[in-house]
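Researcher: We're teaching a course module on how sequence relates to structure. For the next exercise, students receive a sequence and then see the predicted structure as tokens, so they can try to spot secondary structure elements on their own. Here is the exercise chain.
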Amino acid sequence: MNLRELSSRLGCALRGDGAVDVSRVCGIDDAGPGDLTFVSNPRYVPRLATTRASAVIVPPELETPLPSLLAANPYLTFARAVAILHPQPRPLPGVHPTAVVDPTAELGEGVHVGALAVIGMGVRIGARTVIHPHVVLYPEVHVGEECVLHSGVQVREHCHLGHRVVVQNGAVIGADGFGFAKDDAGRYLKIPQIGAVVLDDDVEIGALTAVDRASLGQTRIGPGTKIDNLVQIGHSVTIGRDSVLAGQVGIAGSTKVGDRVTLAGQVGVVGHIRIGDGAIVTAQTGVPGDVAPGAVISGSPAIENRAWLKSIAVFARLPDLQKRVRELERRLEGLVRK
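Model: And here is the predicted structure for the students to work with:
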């Protein structure tokens, strides 16, 4: 595809030779002739002088002799270019002969069901959805249109997935929440988890992530929210729209997370609290209580991010400060004696 056609499909302004052909998208260091690369981080600007790429996606204010696509958000444009130049193969519609599909299940037009998948009683699957091998859908699961469930995904009974939902390999949607009541003898009695999980439209769930069913009602993940690998979402948690949860985040039961919230890697959140819209929680933060909308917090227990940055700067100097305090105490004691 030449750069002029690609610029038209991406809605980008073109600078330079539009007849240049590009066949793939590649990182700036590895790119060669026929490749399209991008620069979204200022630290990579000097590498434009040495890249072998045929063309580049850059912000409009960045000058380069290379033929360029001009985009206010080069990273977003890069993502769209990848989708155009590297279209993903789609399995053909149909049910593999080794799959087990209950007679009461309803499969929409163009659905693909892979080898050894199990589709339970009363399941409904929307048009053009792809069910890869070894996926198990328990009874009364509803899956919307144009979803992709990768191999090894398990979706438990009565859970509901909206349209264009992607669930990566090995994720479990709707396992029992961690609910137990202790009796007088100190033994734990399991509380039946009779709720469900709802994943709204355009949600993505990472590999080996667990989203537990509610004890009552719903665990709900809002439209457009993206959840990374190895994340634990406890029972009865609700997460708003367009939030992002990075790897190894854990959220305990009944917590409410707002819209456009960012939880960075290894954040731990206690149960029964609220995290307000637009909040950012930095990596490895422990969240013990409510978080105000728009707050940026860090540390464990969490504090305001700027205070945390000052605190860790002091923390690294504590051994030296301790020596200085002891020396001052010794001198003060000498003065008191005199």
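Model: If you want an answer key for the exercise: The longest strand covers residues 35-38. The chain has a mean pLDDT of 96.
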